Amino acid sequence: MHLLLCPDSFKDALSGQMAAEAMARGIQRAAPHAQVDLCPLADGGEGSLAALIAATGAERRTAHVHDALGRPAQAAWGWLGEERTAFIELAEASGLQSLNANERDARATTTYGVGELFREALDAGAEKALLLLGGSATNDAGAGMLAALGTKLLDRDNQPLAPGGAALAGLHSLDFSEFDSRLARLHVEAAVDVDNPLLGSHGASAVFGPQKGATPEHVAELDRALAHFAEITAHTLGEDHRALPGAGAAGGMGFAARAFFSATLKPGIELIMQQADMSRRLERTDLVITGEGRLDGQSLGGKTPIGVARAARKAGKPVVLLTGSLGDGWEACYAEGVTAAFALADGPISLDDAVARTAPLLEARCESLIRLWQAAGS
Length: 378
What we know:
By secondary structure, the protein is an alpha/beta fold. The protein is 37% helix and 19% strand. It has two domains: 2-40 and 277-377, Rossmann fold, CATH 3.40.50.10350; 48-269, Glycerate kinase, domain 2.
């Protein structure tokens, strides 16, 4: 019996790797001789770097960068030397998780540190970069990243703009005379977990700004600033990407990746499964077990378990989904290739208890699942 374990993280409880290890412990209790392939995955958001490193064996490197508020920080990135490929996770440098609640200010936060990670990758000789978008504290449409890579964002007095999305309202011109020339030879793919455009009621500022500290007034201000930035960018480059699905990812970083790096934007789970060689893994497995913290109707928009289920369906493999909770509309997962879905809780339980017990609950569910699987096959 060969089993493929590819969960996402269980938010606030377990990383994807820890979840896969808990699943494996439960399986080994029921079937000590089972072959278990641990392949934690993610959909492009926070935790995707760890999933990619675990799945590919990439080297984990660290770099000195500046965080979303411009403070010195350390950020991890991944390096596949033989393939000259860098894995860059935005959240490592400019992530929301590094800020306290009272530090969140979508008007002022910057993606400068992401540009510093790109410089590290270029210095290492990168020819390809996979940019993982999600979990950002920023709403500057990549302006900080561009500044770190040599672009001058200038106001009417030919002075550099202050960091942050709000300052983009004063942008007059973009000067690429010192833009890092190595970027022209870098193939960039951006992993996105949303399909929002840059602007409007479904755009970066309106949908994601509030969780980054933006009030309704700030949201309107930021949307106008990003619209102005998009207008200047389109005039300068001759192409307009503000309506591109995914342009609003990570505070407009999807827009920047496409406009300035000619990046391909793809659902994060698809890119990460490609790097993890999922097609080969699926060929040799009998059963796939995946999961994440919550499953509901919104999960169909590109979340990890649904991406796994769709790939497994094409390969003709059954998929069991384990999740902390099942929300409204979760039944739609069956149409996407999920064979069965189960919540972890074994009775009435508080959220704090559920988080604390996620690992043993995963172990117990997997042990029961494999015992049932063996009985059904006997």
